[in-house]
Amino acid sequence: MNNMMSLVLRTTGYFLLPLLLIFSVFLLLRGHDEPGGGFIAGLVAAAAVCLHLFFTDIAATRRLLHIDPRDLLGWGLTLATLSGIPAVFMGDPFFTSQWVEMTLPILGETKVGTPLLFDIGVYAVVVGSVLAIVLSLAEAEE
Amino acid sequence: MGTLMAFLVGGLYAAAIYMIMRRSIVKLVIGLVLLSNAANLLIFTSAGMTREAPPLIPLGALQPDGVVADPLAQALILTAIVIGFGVLAFAVVLIHRAYEVVKADDMDQMKDTDT
Amino acid sequence: MGHTSVLLALPIIIPLLSGALSLIYWRSRKAQRIIGVLGTTALLVLSGMLVAEVWQHGIIVMHMGGWQAPFGIVLVSDMLAASMVFMTGISAVTTAFYALGSVSKRHEHFGFYPLMHLLLAGVNGAFLTGDMFNLYVWFEVMLVASFALLILGGERAQMEGAIKYVALNLVSSAILLSAIGLLYGLTGTLNMADLGYKIGQLEDDAMISVVAMLFLVAFGIKAAAFPLFFWLPASYHTPRVAVSALFAGLLTKVGVYALFRVFTVIFPFEDTFAQSLLVWIAALTMVTGVLGAAAQFEFRRILSFHIVSQIGYMLMGLALYSPLAIAGGIYFIAHNIVAKSGLFLISGLVYRFKGSYELKELGGVYRQYPILALMFLICAFSLAGLPPLSGFFAKFLVIRAGVEAHAWWLVATALAVGFMTLYSMVKIWAEVFWKEQEVCHIKPPRKYRGGTRIMYATVIGLALLTIAMGLAMEPLFLIAQMAAEQLLNPAGYIEAVLGETGLGAREGATP
ipTM of this model? Predict the structure, then answer.
């Protein structure tokens, strides 16, 4: 991928990468009542990592990730599936949303519930699966 | 608008089927992309295209205020797009690997498993 | 919500969870194997409980996430769905155990187990859902998993087979999606029960039959029915045997199940164009499948073509549309899952010992492995329909229904196809098991590890099951009859899903 080593791409890429990742977390957290959500946030995060792949190489991207995409996929799927189960113990059907209200130091009144767990799971599944496909394709190219 | 969309959807289906019938597997995949998009647009059209307010319920109310657009069709299309995205990502990986193994972009070279 | 509705979601949740867990442990073969065995066994036990529950209390419904029926997604289990889930459990357990011996390290590394669980989740989801669009989603889940399983290993034949499989199945999915879109435009609902009610009130017959035809084509492709079955014999013999057996047992049956569901609950079927067409499709599927098999000389290809011909019998059950015929069709699906998986697994054992699937190269298996030969005889005779095995009663029910409906030429076709099936099975018997092996230039793939005993055990288990299904005909027939009655009286289904309060004013529950 050396022919893609454009100076402009590399310089902007290092700026864009953290911005995009923060933006993806923002999309993830606002997703329940407003546009956003786990899927689109996961795609943004995966796109950010793909951008990194463009201006470095596969080894560097794997180092950036710290974690194998397949692990992300597994944990995400587990989390998303498990998020449906608390409802059963409350006597509701599967996947009924369960909410807990709490007061956090900085955020103030916050509602946390199983849909957030589900969204985080979806986020991990999307990031994991897109990156697993992209990385295996990139490795096949070499 | 509905008539226009109907022609558009029909054109997409025709283009998709034409591409699927080509011998090249790359064109086959392009045809499949067009086909899934045609189906999505068909849902969009057949669910009725009305220019209404977005289906948002005001704070405190239980029902939306007045007539709103049908959100379900859009939810269906969104789901179908996501699924189509996943399936097509797989199809691209598949033709890439098939090309590496068979060394040809031609359906006529892939007759080993036919009977 | 009592514990019964939990029982309804577990056949989907358990495979999803086992799939997710085996993804987490993708580095450890041992953990994946343990999860595979435990997960599928749990699935079998729970699906057995589901059948018992439906038997006692009738149709069970669960509103996912607490959203009420026509708006939210419902899971519904009538007897047909419950027994299909149970057969999935049987198929899953045998595959998981057989895989312990047969699936190589490389395949496990590339994710055989997670994909198997995902496939099972998709199949069970398709059986249990009560929502058209959700059915499409589960079909896609199942397809994606099956695509990946099909190319696991990456040999040339697998790639070629997979391209045909993927292309035709994606086309069928697009047709299904279009049909769902048109149906939604027509009725404004996607809940199967609600659809059944609203279609009954519509007057636009032409549009209804257009949509019904689209569904017939889409599910017909997925079920490998007559003109559109070519993807099946082109691809099913290419992957590992454990995968082939799973596909042969389950995938096409989901298409058949969807046809049974759509043409009983949703669309009017009796004396429509769809019915007269399906009679032809059923007959031609039987004939082309069995003739295709007669022309083949490769173990698994013969079996693949027989899947097609057996689909014809199941469709014949639906096409005749009497309680007996539908009960027969349902019993046939159950029988076929057992007998066909068994035969595919036997072909895998023969390959393990001899290193080939070609009839010409094989021979002498009876002398060396008499138990395997006996198991083959049982499964093969069951497939061909000899008493007292399950296949005999399956065919007997369907053909009896044909006689009662005075569909003489359909009955004649079914009987002739039965003889042709016997011919194919005898051909395999004579070539693979009976004759002396001529030249021994083929060798077993390599020194295999252990695990042959487990593989034997699963094959013997399936053979015993097909005998048991024949001997315990009475209770099984009662179950099939109950399923058929529920299908033919969709009012019960509609009432169970939408409630007795009438279909007018219902409120969506708040989350």
Answer: 0.92
